[in-house]
Amino acid sequence: MIIEQPAIFLRWIYPHALWRMDRHRKAVYLTFDDGPIPAATPFILDTLERFGARATFFMVGDNAQKYPHLVREVRSRGHRIGNHTFHHLGGLRWKYEEYLQDVYLAGELLHTDLFRPPHGWMRVSQYHRLRKEGFKVVMWDVVTRDYSCYLSADDVVQNVKRYTRPGSIITFHDSLKSIDKLKGALPRALQWLCEQGYEFCVFE
Q1: Taking the domains of the chain in order of start, what are their residue ranges?
Q2: Which of 81, 144, 184, 202 is deepest in the core (most CB within 10 A)?
């Protein structure tokens, strides 16, 4: 649970970030980090369409530059796009201005006010600067850990079932590390969410 759901102290560090949405509405916010890539994004889009689900894709600018047709496809299917930096930088390892410049570089391609820091961390000064400039910082309520080589597709589904609650922001990954597990886990997770009566929403 330490990984799957965020520690309270993280919410204190980034107090105005979005961690969980309206807990009185039976809705979830599906998010996919790190894409787009041809090996994963089309499968994810087709699976979401099967279940009538909308999602938010936090894209790495370098991938968006390489595969602009996938960026267009995500948008054309009614999903939202978020900024995940251009080079998937961890904010704590990069100087204040270098990190921000990487965010802005991705922004030139993605044109979105949604931002999620890679690895879920950045300097507090970077966080406040981005918020001041109008970015909505989106974190998570559930991390499925679909990227982990120690977990199976069954484990990913169980994480969704165990930790999802009304208003959950659920994080999957649009990546090579995740796609083999997602092929088994994503349809089952979406089916379960539908059976539980969850609505699929995107950030306004």
Answers
A1: 8-200
A2: 144
Of these residues, 33, 34, 141, 146, which one is catalytic?
33
173 is catalytic: yes
Question: Residue 2: pLDDT band by 50, 70, 90 thresholds?
Answer: low
Dump pLDDT digits (tens) for 38-81: 999 999 999 999 999 999 999 999 999 999 999 999 999 999 99
Instruction: Say whether 24 is catalytic.
Output: no
Q: The pTM is what?
A: 0.96
The CA-based dihedral angle spanning residues 160, 137, 56, 5, taken in that order and rounded to the nearest 10 degrees: 0
Domain 8-200 class?
A: alpha beta
Using CA atoms, how far apart are residues 109 and 166, in angstroms rounded to an integer? 33
Q: Which residue among 34, 102, 141, 173 is the active-site one?
A: 173
